[in-house]
Structures are given as structure tokens and as C-alpha cells.
Design brief:
The complex is a heterotrimer.
Chain A (H helix, E strand, L loop, with lengths): L1 H31 L6 H18 L10 H28 L8 H22 L15 H4 L1 E4 L2 E4 H23 L1 H11 L1 H6 L4 H26 L6 H16 L4 H21 L5 H15 L14
Antiparallel strand pairs in A: 1-2
Chain B lengths: L3 E12 L2 E12 L3 E5 L6 H8 L7 E6 L2 E2 L5 H6 L2 E3 L12 H7 L9 H6 L2 H19 L19 H13 L5 E5 L7 H16 L4 E5 L3 H7 L2 E6 L2 E6 L1 H5 L2 H8 L1 H6 L1
Parallel strand pairs in B: 3-8, 3-9, 6-7, 7-8
Antiparallel strand pairs in B: 1-2, 1-4, 4-5, 9-10
Chain C lengths: L26 H4 L1 H4 L5 H12 L2 H18 L3 H26 L7 H15 E2 L4 E2 L2 H20 L7 H21 L22 E2 L2 E2 L3 E2 L2 E2 L1 H22 L2 H11 L1 H6 L4 H27 L9 H14 L4 H19 L1 H20 L3 H24 L10 H6 L11 H20 L2 H23 L3 H19 L14
Antiparallel strand pairs in C: 1-2, 3-4, 5-6
Helix pairs in contact in C: 4-9, 5-9, 5-12, 5-13, 5-14, 6-7, 6-8, 6-12, 7-12, 9-12, 10-12, 13-14, 13-20, 14-20, 15-19, 16-19, 18-19
Classes of the chains: A mainly alpha, B alpha/beta, C mainly alpha.
The complex binds adenosine-5'-diphosphate and magnesium ion (MG).
The site of magnesium ion has 3 residues of chain B, from helix 1.
């Protein structure tokens, strides 16, 4: 039981990271019908920006600002940086291809993904960058926390999971309660109709990229607070986020959240009860099972062919 | 009496609660030309989608020459002898004009990948036959499609010729029943007149049975043995052209009065 | 009945009277041929002549030129590069089948290359003691590759290209995982794990072994064998493309629904396209593994996938000669980028040609050239006045010539390089947006910055630099020329 709680906690932590990444995929897929392969790399850049800001503020062991402010600043910087990056990517790599054949932006996205990961490697090398979060206020974020059935739940985990959920709530609010959010939903439902109703599609798309990429930036920081980051991390994490989005039903916001958590837990349990080596296999099997039995995902709707 | 080629029996279809076709009975006899008319959104194209297997009916049965075709994949239905054209043209634009017609021979030819790689004599013979077939189908349009560069991509064709190519492609599946979805849409009066003659010729020389959706009443008058009028997915009239054209319900449906009163 | 007769001649264009279209024809279209602008003078004549050369003549010419390479080039390294290029060409042909004809975004393609490689390595290596004759193992590996392709495609067969992309991409990731952890599958060692299998036997036919090395250098026989396999693949695929199946693949790429309604079993056709491509990849894997005498999980990373996509897109997806040329160009490009001297020459060549192409021979060109030169010399002088070590990094060759222009410090402080790279990206993005005078002003510093970054960061780090170039190539190609060098113009109406 203790072991199970431990694994669940782990699954929830990594799952909330996946969920944030999956949300970006889902949002962008919703409005552009584009699988943004570069999204995982935006996430990776976010973790690097976080690292840079962390170092600039004195590092984890000796920060010049209080710890809570440090975490907020690091996360905010990553979110803003990624939002800018996302907008630039959209503006230069996808917008010129708005009316191109379906496959063109996909290939452009592959190019962007490749360009970003190798640029980071060129700039900073292929080595790992460790936030050394156990040094934050002398390890207090790990000692503190509470015990659940003799399992210690560190404060940092609670902060991570809590802020991931807070971000999702904010996103839900933005999408469901603001004008732009409503325009976004209209656009993802039917782009042409939305355009005819006077919705500025370009604005909606930029807004979507800002939201999605900012979430990826936050996810990057949360990820790197747990394990070190490196230039090639975007590919695998992106893939997982992607899979989470598909399992949840691509285009669906609650779907992305549930899919992310599900994937994180599946990975964690596999690693705990079986072996880390084959966790990919388990996730792939889940993906295939969904493809066969529920291709529209948990919360997706079935597309009707239009003739 | 001629054989029943196509029969629809109480066919209904709804999209998320919205009824598009309800309890429709329809039949087409061997060698007949039947026109379907009705205002936009009446469910005419949906009817074609049902017959060709793109949608499956919620209720009812569709039979081709007495055998039910409900639940079959579209390509299986095509192989049994139903071919169609699309109202919104759906040519293979980047294939050549002739290839467009040749593709439709897929259902009644056999050579597989390995035979094609090796170019066995049987495969080459079949290729020649397909090529002959395509020449023949294209030549059916006489001057109109003749003499064009058949090895140019289909996107280089004009709108009217794209419509003709769609018909040529459909006939290359060797169908018994041809479904034409607004064949005269977007054509000028001369071309519309030609299409009328052509549809007649498709029956007399091609031997096809034809179900056609058409808005142009001159065309409908010129070709139809029988006319069926649809509105809101139900059949509101059926009979000869004159009978249907003078039917009060049909006139109201077209003028938009019917909607106000029946709702 | 006269209308039913086929036209007299096979090529209907000859039937068009030269005086003009006959009455009743669609004139605009009938005159399509006349409207097509053909180049004047001898260039037009040459172009027309070249168009008439049949495909097999081109192929023979190409193969002849390729076969002569070892005659003129005795370096084992160059020959090896030649071999790898031919393998890439084969891979590109297979990927073209799936992406260019079938219209399916197959992101797991390299995994099938891996399947072929591992099948060969497992059944033909000292590691497990099997020694299956090549004449059996090559077709067997091809078939296994195709079958695995079929299995992977199966779950996503009803779905759109996007889902196929995800499943295949994940499959690629999974393939790497399986290969890396394959030394402990329920206690059995199957793939040799991350160390791979390094005792693979060379090819052998009828008891005669085809040695990989001859007097310590690359054995040319493998090069020729690869060419033979390439020709077989090329011709077979050419035939398939012009058969019932090939036409069906291309029509489902154009419009799957219309294809289905015209009697083509779209799901099955997608699967066959996918599986045939996988088979070609597996075939390429066998010979490549036999030559390298080893196989490692890292041989099948996404890097190789992107390289292949760059080849197919650059050459022109959908066009067989196109992707072959694309494979050749990208392969050469990757080699050039690895050599500092050649990479330098290539860079300045591209810059010069690019700027000339943008401005033609004009006053503006002179302004850009002069101001870039002056900008550089000034920057260099300022840098040199601080400390001589700031400009002491360049030696010899073209680098020596440029040593008074571009600043190359002995040791670059990391943050300078990082900032320069970032600035360069910003400059490049701005340059695409600005017009007229503003662009004229921003161009020289950007060009200089590009030279600085190239000399100080890209050339010393050929690993990431090569792939940055490939990534950029993909993006720019998609925007500027999505049909590639030799691809046909495509239209798509949604
Ligand atoms: N795939 C679909 N999903 C939802 N509604 C549909 C779909 N296809 C057709 N409809 C609806 O069915 C009705 C009939 O359409 P259609 O058959 O195209 O009319 P028409 O008689 O003009 O050809 C229309 O109201 C249309 O909106
Ligand atoms: Mg219609």
C-alpha cells in the first residue's frame, strides 16, 4: 500500500506535466488541425529558460530572493519565453502554410522541432542541466510536507501538482469564460464559419499558441524541478504529451488532463511493479488499444464525414 | 414490367437528432431514368450518400437487384454496380485526365503489386484493357473531351469538363446504375442542352440505368421517365414530369410556403 | 456508335489541329499547350529535347555515372560515403512511396529500416551462431519488414493521417526502446541491448563470401551490389506506380472518399502502401548491416528520419527521380558540413549566390556588398584593438583570406556565441519581414553575424550544425517550394 501511494504520487507528478503538454497539443490541434511536433521542444526550451533564470537569481542553494518568489519568477519567465517562442513559430513556420496541402505544416513542424533541439544543443551542449531543487531553502521543500500512511509527501510535489491544476483551472476559465476563449472554441468547431461570423482567426490562433506554449513552459519547469533536463528531452516528453492528448480525445481539454494523468500513472506503476525499461511498451499498448477500441479518445467526439 | 434495379424501403437517417431522410421509399427500374428534385437541403445528396454506402441508414433497407447492400463498404457497393458523380466535384486533381478514368477500373481488374513489379504478360494485357476502356469512356464525350491532352493533370480542365470527366470516371467502374448529382450545375445553356442529350445517350448507348439529381427543369423535363420530389427528407410527390411539376406541394416547397405551413 | 471508338493515335495531343481549337471545344483549355511559355532560343530547344528522353535512359545514365565513381575515386572513405548515399536513395524511394504516393505521414519509417537490419544481424552473426545464406535472409528480412509494417498500420487504418503519424512516431520510439533493452527480454538476449550486435557476417552467395574490406579498405563490390539493388527497387516501384495499384495509391492521396466510392478499398490500399514502403526500408537495412558488420539502436534515431524527410521533400515528394536527386544532395550536404574547409566554402557560396539572386546585379547589390565588407573590417579592427587573441582564431585557406574580416577569437567566451546565435535568429526573422530600405540597412549586420556564428559555432560543432541546417531547410522548403526541385506542381482544394 505504501509503495502504491508512492507510485501514485510519482505518477500524478509526471502525469500533471504530461497533462500540461497535452493541453498545448490539444488546443493547437483544435484551432489549426495541426499536430505541432515542435511543442515538445517548446517544452524543452521552457525548462532551459527556467534553468537560466534560476542561475541568474543565484541558483537553488543561494538565491537572492525568497524561495516562493524564486519559483514564481522561474516559472513565469519560462511561460513568457515559451509564449513568445510559440508566437514566433506560428508566425514564421505555420502561418505561411495556412492554405498549403495538409502535409506541409506537419513537415514544417518536424523541421522546427529539429531546429530547436539542435539549436539548444549547439548553444548549451548535450549535457544535463540540474535545477538541484533539493537545495532550495536547504532542502525544506523536501523535508516538509505531510505523511500519508507513512509515506512522506514532499512539499515540492504538492506545489507542483497543485500549480499544474491551478493552471488548468485558469485555462478552463480562459477558454470558457472569456470572449477570446469563446472565439477559440468557435474556431475549433468550424474555422470557416467562425471567420464568416467576424472572428479574427489570426488573433485566435496567436492566442492559442500563447496559451499552449505558456503551459508547455510551465510544464518544462515542473519537469526539471524533478529530474535534470537536456536538449533532447523534448522529443520523448512531447510524444508522451501527444499520446495523452490522443487518449483523452484530441481537441478536448478535460481529455488532455485525464489522459496526461492516466499516462503518468501507467508509467509509474509499470516502473514500480515491473521495470522502467518497458514503460514505453505499456504506454504504446494503451495507445494502440485506444486506436482500436475508442479512436476518438475518452472525451472526443466522432467526426462525421462531410460529402 | 422491367426488373427492379434499385429499391429503397422505409429508409431513414438522422444526424444527431436532425432528421435528414425519413421513411423514404424509392425504386428505379432497369433502363429507367429517374430524376430527384427538391429545394436545397432537401436531402437529395444525402440520399446518394446512403445508396453508395457513405452513410448507413438508421432504419430501412436498400436493395440492388433484390440484394440488400446496407452495411457494405462503398467500394463493395461500387463493385456491385453503382457508380456516382459528386455535386462538389471530387476528381483526383493531380492525376492526369486519363488516369482519373483508369483508376475507376480498379474494382474489376486484378493485377496485384508483385505482378505489377514484374510486369507479367497478364498484367500488361490488363493494363492495355484498362487503357482501352479509358479511351473509350473519354471518347464518349465526343468533341468535348476528345483531343484534349489526356496526359495533363485534371486540374487543367475547365469546370464543365471536370463535370464530364466525373461522369467518364463513374462509367469506367462498369456500373449498372449511374447516380448523377447535379450534372448540369454551373454549365451554360449550350452545355446544359448537351448534358441533356448526353444523359439520354448514356442510357441508349451505354445501357446504364440512371438516377439523377437536377435543379434545371429543362433538363429534368428532357430526360426523365419519372420524377421524384423530396422536401425535408420525405417524398412529397412522384410521377411524370408534368404530374410532379404541377403538384401543389412541390410548388409550395420550391416557393418556401410549405415550410411555413407544415411546421 | 462512332463516338465509342477510341482516338486514332495513342497521344491525343497530336489530334489537335495546329490552326486552333475546333468549334465547340473548350478553347481556353485546348490552347493550354500554346499558352505554356517555352524558353526561347537554344535553351528552349534543349529543354524540349531533354523532356523527350525516356525515364530508363536517365536511370541508365545516372547508374553509369555512379558506377564510374570508384574508378576515379580511390579513397575508401569516399566510396563508403557513396555506398551510404545509395542506401539513402533506396530508403528515399520507399518513403516516397508512402508519403509521396500514398499521402501517409509515416514517422516510423526508420524503424522498418531497423527491422530489416536486426533481422539480418540476428540470423547472420557470430553472436547467435546462425548463418543463413544471404539469398534467403535478404528476401526474408524484406518480408518481415513489410509484415511488421502491416501490423503497425493495422490499428490506425481507419483513421486519418494524423493518427497514423502518432502511432508510427511512437512505434519508432518503441523500436529504439526494444532494441536498447532487447538483451533482457524475459532473460533472453535478442538484440544485444545498447551495444547492439557487432559480429555480423558479410554477405555470402553460394558459399562465396563477399568481403567487406579489401586490403583494409572498403570493398567496392558492396557499392555495386547496392547500385544493383537500387535499380531493382527503382524499376519495380516505377512499374507499380504506373499500375492499377499505383494509381489507386495516388488517388487515395488526392481524395480518399472519392477513391473509395470509385471502387478502391482505401483501407487495404493504405496498408499495402505502408507495408510496401516498410519492405523497401527493411531491404535497405540488410545490405547496410552486412557492410557495417554491426547494428546499434542509435542507427535508427529520429535524426535519420528527419534526414530522409529532408531528402524526399527537397527532391520533390511524389517524383522518383526527384527523391533520388534529393537523397544525393542531402547526403553530399551532410558530408560537406562535416569538413570545416568545405563547410566554409559552401556557406560563403550560398550567401553570395543568395544575395545576388535577391538583388540581381544592381546598385543595391553593390551597396550591400560594400557595406558588409566595411562593417566587417571595422568590427575586426575594433576587436583587434582590444586584444590580439580576439582575432587570432583563423588560419590558412579561405579562413586565412577572411581573417581580416570576420572576427574569430582563439577561444570564444560561451555567452558571446550564445548571444550572437540568438541575435542572428532575430536578424534573420526580421530580414524576412522588412522591405526596401530597412532591409538594406539590416542586411549587412545580419550577414556579418551569420558569418561570425558560422565560423565560431557551426563549424566547430558539425553535429548539431548539420541538423540545424536540415531543420531550416525543411521549414524554408515547405514555404518556398513545397514541391521540391523536381516535383510536379500540385493543387489541393479543401
Ligand atoms: N454529415 C452531415 N452532418 C450533419 N448534417 C448533414 C450532413 N450531411 C448532410 N446534412 C444535412 O442534411 C440536409 C440535407 O443535405 P443535402 O442532402 O446535401 O441536401 P441537397 O438536397 O441540397 O443535396 C442538410 O440540412 C444538411 O445540412
Ligand atoms: Mg446536394
Amino acid at each position: 500500500m505504501q509503495f502504491f501511494i508512492q507510485l501514485s504520487l510519482d505518477g500524478l507528478t509526471i502525469g500533471s506535466v504530461y497533462a500540461l503538454v497535452a493541453l498545448g497539443y490539444t488546443l493547437i490541434y483544435g484551432v489549426l488541425k495541426l499536430l505541432n511536433f515542435a511543442h515538445g521542444d517548446v517544452f524543452m526550451v521552457g525548462s532551459f529558460i527556467g534553468y537560466g533564470v534560476l542561475q541568474a537569481l543565484g541558483g537553488a542553494s543561494d538565491p537572492v530572493v525568497p524561495v516562493w518568489l524564486l519559483l514564481v519568477l522561474v516559472t513565469l519567465a519560462a511561460m513568457v519565453g515559451c509564449a513568445v517562442l510559440g508566437v514566433v513559430i506560428e508566425r514564421f513556420a505555420y502561418r505561411p502554410l495556412r492554405n498549403a496541402p495538409r502535409i506541409a505544416p506537419l513537415i514544417s513542424a518536424l523541421g522546427v522541432s529539429f531546429f530547436l533541439s539542435n539549436s539548444m544543443q549547439l548553444e548549451f551542449g548535450a549535457q544535463q542541466f540540474n535545477y538541484a531543487s533539493y537545495n532550495l531553502s536547504g532542502g525544506a521543500l523536501y523535508f516538509h510536507g505531510f505523511d500519508l500512511d507513512h509515506v512522506h509527501i514532499p512539499l515540492l510535489r504538492i506545489i507542483t501538482i497543485g500549480s499544474a491544476f491551478a493552471l488548468m483551472v485558469v485555462l478552463w476559465f480562459l477558454v470558457n469564460r472569456t470572449r477570446t476563449g469563446k472565439a477559440m472554441r468557435a474556431t475549433s468547431f468550424d474555422r470557416e464559419a467562425a471567420a464568416m461570423l467576424g472572428i479574427d482567426i489570426d488573433r485566435v490562433i496567436v492566442f492559442t499558441f500563447i496559451l499552449g506554449s505558456a503551459l508547455a513552459g510551465a510544464a518544462g519547469v515542473m519537469f526539471a524541478l524533478r529530474v535534470p533536463t537536456f536538449a533532447a528531452v523534448g522529443f520523448t516528453t512531447g510524444l508522451k504529451g501527444f499520446t495523452a492528448a490522443v487518449i483523452g480525445g484530441i481537441g478536448s481539454i478535460p481529455g488532455a488532463m485525464v489522459g496526461g494523468i492516466l499516462l503518468g500513472c501507467a508509467e509509474s506503476y509499470t516502473a514500480g511493479y515491473w521495470t522502467t525499461a518497458w514503460s514505453d511498451l505499456v504506454v504504446f499498448s494503451i495507445l494502440i488499444a485506444f486506436m482500436i477500441f475508442r479512436p476518438q479518445g475518452l472525451f472526443g467526439r466522432v467526426d462525421i464525414r462531410k460529402v | 414490367m422491367a426488373e427492379r434495379l434499385l429499391e429503397l424501403d422505409g429508409v431513414s437517417l438522422a444526424f444527431g437528432g436532425l432528421r435528414c431522410v425519413s421513411d423514404l421509399d424509392l425504386h428505379v427500374d432497369e433502363g429507367e431514368i429517374v430524376s430527384v428534385i427538391g429545394p436545397n437541403g432537401a436531402g437529395k445528396t444525402t440520399l446518394f450518400n446512403l445508396i453508395t454506402g457513405i452513410y448507413e441508414p438508421d432504419e430501412g433497407d436498400i436493395r440492388l437487384a433484390g440484394e440488400s447492400i446496407v452495411g457494405l463498404q462503398p467500394h463493395q457497393i461500387t463493385r456491385r454496380g453503382i457508380a456516382r458523380t459528386f455535386q462538389t466535384l471530387r476528381l483526383f486533381l493531380n492525376l492526369t485526365v486519363k488516369e482519373n478514368v483508369m483508376t475507376a477500373a480498379y474494382g474489376h481488374t486484378k493485377a496485384g503489386i508483385f505482378r505489377s513489379m514484374l510486369r507479367t504478360p497478364g498484367m500488361r494485357r490488363e493494363e492495355r484493357e484498362i487503357s482501352e476502356l479509358a479511351n473509350q469512356k473519354l471518347a464518349f464525350f465526343g468533341e468535348r473531351l476528345m483531343g484534349y491532352r489526356w496526359n495533363q493533370p485534371a486540374y487543367s480542365l475547365s469546370y464543365a469538363n471536370r463535370r464530364r470527366l466525373e461522369i467518364a470516371r463513374a462509367t469506367a467502374t462498369n456500373p449498372r446504375l449511374l447516380l448523377l448529382d447535379e450534372p448540369a450545375a454551373g454549365m451554360n445553356p449550350v452545355e446544359t442542352h448537351e448534358i441533356t442529350e448526353l444523359i439520354g445517350k448514356l442510357r441508349t448507348e451505354g445501357g446504364y440505368t440512371i438516377l439523377v439529381i437536377e435543379h434545371d427543369m429543362h433538363v429534368v423535363e428532357g430526360i426523365s421517365d419519372r420524377v421524384v420530389a423530396l422536401d425535408h427528407g420525405t417524398k412529397i410527390a412522384e410521377g411524370t414530369f408534368v404530374e410532379v411539376a404541377t403538384n401543389q406541394g412541390v410548388i409550395e416547397a420550391y416557393l418556401g410556403l410549405g415550410t411555413a405551413e407544415t411546421k | 456508335m462512332s463516338e465509342w471508338l477510341p482516338p486514332e493515335s495513342e497521344s491525343p495531343e497530336e489530334a489537335v489541329p495546329t490552326t486552333g481549337p475546333a468549334v465547340g471545344r473548350d478553347e481556353w483549355v485546348a490552347r493550354e499547350g500554346e499558352r505554356r511559355v517555352s524558353r526561347a532560343g537554344w535553351a528552349g530547344t534543349v529543354e524540349e529535347r531533354l523532356r523527350r528522353v525516356p525515364w530508363w535512359a536517365w536511370l541508365m545514365l545516372f547508374v553509369a555515372a555512379g558506377s564510374l565513381m570508384p574508378v576515379f575515386e580511390s579513397s575508401g572513405y569516399v566510396r563508403l560515403v557513396g555506398f551510404n548515399t545509395v542506401v539513402y536513395m533506396m530508403l528515399a524511394l520507399g518513403l516516397n512511396l508512402v508519403v509521396g504516393w500514398g499521402g501517409l505521414l509515416d514517422l516510423g519509417y526508420i524503424a522498418f529500416f531497423g527491422v530489416g537490419s536486426y533481422v539480418y544481424a540476428i540470423f547472420d552473426s557470430a553472436k547467435f551462431g546462425y548463418h543463413v545464406p544471404s539469398i534467403l535472409i535478404i528476401p526474408a528480412a524484406t518480408i518481415v519488414g513489410a509484415l511488421v509494417g502491416l501490423l503497425v498500420g493495422l490499428p490506425s487504418r481507419r483513421l486519418s493521417g494524423d493518427y497514423l503519424a502518432i502511432v508510427t512516431l511512437f512505434f519508432l520510439e518503441l523500436f529504439e526502446t526494444v532494441a536498447t533493452n532487447g538483451n533482457q527480454i524475459f532473460g533472453h538476449d535478442i538484440t544485444g541491448g545498447s551495444f547492439g550486435i557487432s559480429t555480423v557476417f558479410p554477405l555470402s552467395f553460394a558459399g562465396h563470401t563477399l568481403a567487406v574490406q579489401h586490403n583494409g579498405i572498403f570493398a567496392v563490390s558492396y557499392y555495386y551490389l547496392a547500385i544493383v539493388m537500387f535499380v531493382i527497387v527503382y524499376v519495380s516501384l516505377f512499374f507499380v506506380n504506373n499500375s492499377r495499384t499505383g494509381r489507386a495509391w495516388r488517388s487515395l492521396r488526392e481524395d480518399p472518399l472519392a477513391a473509395e466510392v470509385m471502387g478502391m478499398p482505401v483501407n487495404w490500399l493504405k496498408l499495402t502502401s505502408f507495408a510496401t514502403g516498410a519492405g523497401v526500408a527493411a531491404l535497405a537495412g540488410t545490405i547496410s548491416t552486412a557492410l557495417n558488420a554491426s547494428v546499434y539502436p542509435l542507427n535508427f534515431s529520429p535524426v535519420v528520419l528527419i534526414t530522409l524527410y529532408a531528402m524526399v521533400i527537397l527532391g520533390g515528394s511524389g517524383s522518383q527521380p526527384g527523391v533520388v536527386v534529393g537523397a544525393f544532395l542531402v547526403s553530399v550536404l551532410l558530408q560537406v558540413l562535416q569538413d570545416p574547409g568545405q563547410a566554409r566554402v559552401l556557406f560563403y557560396l550560398v550567401i553570395v549566390v543568395g544575395v545576388i539572386a535577391a538583388y540581381r546585379v544592381s546598385v543595391r547589390l553593390a551597396i550591400v556588398a560594400a557595406s558588409t565588407a566595411v562593417f566587417g573590417i571595422a568590427t575586426h579592427a575594433i576587436a583587434a584593438s582590444f586584444h590580439h587573441s580576439w582575432v587570432d582564431g583563423a588560419h590558412g585557406g579561405l579562413a586565412g583570406v577572411l581573417a581580416n574580416w570576420v572576427v574569430v577569437p582563439e577561444r570564444l567566451t560561451p555567452w558571446v556565441g550564445q548571444v550572437a546565435y540568438l541575435l542572428l535568429l532575430v536578424g534573420m526573422l526580421c530580414a524576412t519581414q522588412l522591405r526596401g530600405r530597412l532591409r538594406l540597412v539590416t542586411l549587412p549586420p545580419t550577414l556579418y553575424l551569420a558569418a561570425f556564428v558560422w565560423e565560431n559555432q557551426m563549424i566547430p560543432n558539425p553535429g548539431p550544425a548539420r541538423y540545424i541546417v536540415l531543420g531550416l531547410l525543411l521549414i524554408v522548403l515547405m514555404i518556398v517550394r513545397p514541391n521540391g526541385l523536381l516535383g510536379e506542381r500540385r493543387v489541393e482544394i479543401n
